[in-house]
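Hi Prof. W.,

I finally got the RNA polymerase sigma factor, sigma-70 family prediction working! I wasn't sure whether to trim anything, so I left the full sequence exactly as given:
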Amino acid sequence: MTGDAKSRTTCPSGTDEDGDADQPEDRYAHQAEVPFSRQALQVVIADHRLEAVRAAAAVVGDHASGEDVAQVAFIELARKWKKKGVLREPRRLLFQIVKLRALDERAKRTPVPLTDDALISKMTADRVMSMPDFAPGIDGLFTSMAVVTALKQLPIRQQQVLVLRIGLQWELAAVSAVMACSAEAVKSLQERGLQTLRKSPLLIGRRTTLPEVH
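And this is what came out:
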């Protein structure tokens, strides 16, 4: 018996010697780095699916929504794991993602009295997060409210363009007229605004190059 095994001997009561209740076994817990593979991903999902659903349901309030959140988390885990190549603790990352996506889901359901500006900022952040080329380039974990905060820290004209073009979905010509600048200037402000937003310390991680704004 190894020193680790001796130190974690299970007591008859179902707790270990430290008094902690038994937890679902994480078969990768003691592996320094776990390479991504479809099999490894399936193992983590199979081992922790029920636990992930319960954790999400505890936040959002019902089992069906908990299953939906868990499924989103599994997809996000796969993307991040595949991008990094290896993970030290797949289970830990999974439950970090579950928590954040459950909080996002609960926020969507919670009626909050918002000013017009706050509502527009939230709408802009949600639409920015849904852009296919935005989140995949960021390895960090963040909620939509973190994007709202980061949005408010942008230079004012970049912020205005993102709100008008992405949040309110105005046509390029309309934004150009309101901002009193050329269409090319609007596209430049939008591209630089997105780049600045993705580099915010509130959205931690490595970034990839954004495509050109059309």
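The beta strands are 34-35, 86-87. Does that look reasonable to you?

Thanks,
D.
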